[in-house]
Every structure is written in C-alpha cells, then in structure tokens.
C-alpha cells in the first residue's frame, strides 16, 4: 500500500522513494510481533532507512520537491504500516482472534452494504467533493449492517449488549473515514484506482482502505472492555 501511494504521487510528477516507504511500512507492522526488549532493533532499522532516504535527496540535481518526496514516502509508510499494525496489536488482546474477525467482518459488511444500498436507493450526496458516488442512504445502510454484524459477535465477546450500537457506529465512522481518505489520495493524483495488483479490483489500498481505520478504532474500544 505504501508503494502504491508512492506510485500515485509519482504519476503526478513527484519522485517518491517507494521502496523505502514500503520497507518502513512493513517494519512498522512487524515490530509488534517482537518482545518490547527486541523492538529497538526494528526501530533502529526504521531510523536508518528514514535517515538514508532523506540524505540521499542531497544528491538529486533537481532544485525543488526533495523534502516533499522524502516526506511522502515516510507519510505513506506511517499511513499504511502504522495503522495496519493495530491489527497485530488487536490479535494480542484477550479474545484477539475474535476481535480481528469482528474488525474484518464489520468492514466488509459496511463497505458492501453502503455500496449496494447507495447504488439502489441513494439520492442525497455525501462528501461528493471527495467521492462523487457517496450518498447518505448508503452511509445509513452501512451503519445498520455494521451494527448487525456486531450483534452477531456479541455472544463471543465479554461485553454488555447495550454496547452493540456504539461499537457498530464507531466502526462505521472509522470505515467511512478510511474510504474517504483513500478517495482523497486518488483524487489528489487524478487516478481511479491505487494500483492493478488485483485484476478488476484495483490495488491493495482499494481493498483495505477502510480496514486501516477500523483496526485502530476496534483496538481502542477492546482495550477498554477487556
């Protein structure tokens, strides 16, 4: 995903260190698989790669955009790897497998329902300056689907029934935010899809943009109730 973001902005004329961004993103995710005492080696690697990528800009002959190119690579790494790392943290909690399954299922249900209901019943535009096809009807349908999914997971998790609606609403807001941010990136660069890695479906960012925001939201909630 970090590589795809670098490619998106590269198509608009900016030279982005896509490989460095992808490597830092992978390290940001993988660091949570190590014990706290061993994470300093991953952090050191992140610091070295970030520093090298920045210093390398000194040798580029162009007179503008050097710091921006480095910054885009690092921001794409933080956006993709930093947010996705919460899925690993979520798995480490008590009932972590169920929490991860909830995050995945509620994201899929929200995206699918909001698209289908918005396509059939959508009349009033929602954030159309970012994504022209978004509608309030689709957003409402996605919220209902997310709440229904959370209710299905209620027997598997140790939380009160009255929290079903707040969790569903929280996940819906996070999923919608993730989708809109990805749409903003593509609109900024004039691209329809983030990539072509999945034929007919676009890139990885197109598939998991909502999940990037849902995982942190579910982790924050799960941390309070577990």
Explain what you see.
With 226 residues, the protein is mainly α. The chain has two domains: 1-85; 93-226, no CATH class. It is 70% helix and 0% strand.
Topology overview:
Elements: H1 2-10, H2 18-30, H3 39-56, H4 66-91, H5 96-121, H6 136-153, H7 164-189, H8 204-225
Helix pairs in contact: 1-2, 1-4, 2-3, 2-4, 4-5, 4-8, 5-6, 5-7, 5-8, 6-7, 7-8
Structural class of the secondary structure composition?
mainly alpha
The rough form would be described as: flat
Per DSSP, the total helix count is 8
* First-to-last CA distance: 31 Å
Order of H and E elements: HHHHHHHH
Q: Which residues form runs of ≥5 with pLDDT under 50?
A: none
Number of strands: 0
Sheet with the most strands? none
> Residue-averaged pLDDT, rounded?
89
In terms of DSSP E residues, the strand content is under 5%
Q: What is the chains' assembly state? A: single chain
What's the alpha carbon Rg, rounded to whole Å? 19 Å
- How many structural units, i.e. domains? 2
As a percent range, the share of helical residues equals 55-70%
Question: Any key phrases for this structure?
Answer:
about 230 residues, mainly alpha, 2 domains, about 70% helix
Summarize the structure.
This protein has 226 residues and is an all-alpha fold. Helices cover 70% and strands 0% of the residues. It has two domains: 1-85; 93-226, no CATH class.
């Amino acid at each position: 995903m970090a590589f795809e973001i670098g490619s998106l902005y590269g198509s608009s004329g900016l030279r982005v260190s896509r490989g460095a961004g992808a490597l830092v993103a992978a390290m940001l995710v993988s660091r949570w698989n190590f014990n706290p005492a061993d994470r300093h080696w991953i952090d050191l690697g992140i610091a070295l790669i970030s520093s090298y990528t920045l210093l390398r800009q000194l040798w580029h002959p162009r007179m503008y955009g050097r710091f921006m190119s480095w910054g885009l690579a690092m921001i794409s790494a933080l956006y993709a790897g930093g947010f996705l790392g919460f899925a690993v943290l979520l798995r480490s909690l008590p009932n972590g497998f169920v929490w991860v399954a909830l995050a995945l299922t509620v994201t899929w249900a929200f995206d699918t329902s909001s698209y289908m209901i918005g396509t059939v019943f959508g009349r009033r535009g929602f954030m159309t300056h970012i994504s022209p096809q978004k509608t309030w009807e689709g957003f409402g349908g996605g919220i209902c689907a997310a709440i229904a999914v959370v209710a299905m997971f209620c027997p598997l998790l140790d939380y009160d029934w009255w929290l079903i609606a707040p969790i569903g609403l929280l996940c819906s807001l996070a999923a919608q935010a993730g989708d809109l941010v990805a749409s903003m990136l593509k609109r900024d660069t004039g691209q329809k899809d983030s990539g072509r890695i999945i034929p007919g479906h676009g890139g990885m960012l197109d598939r998991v943009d909502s999940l990037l925001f849902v995982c942190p939201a579910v982790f924050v909630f799960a941390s309070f109730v577990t």
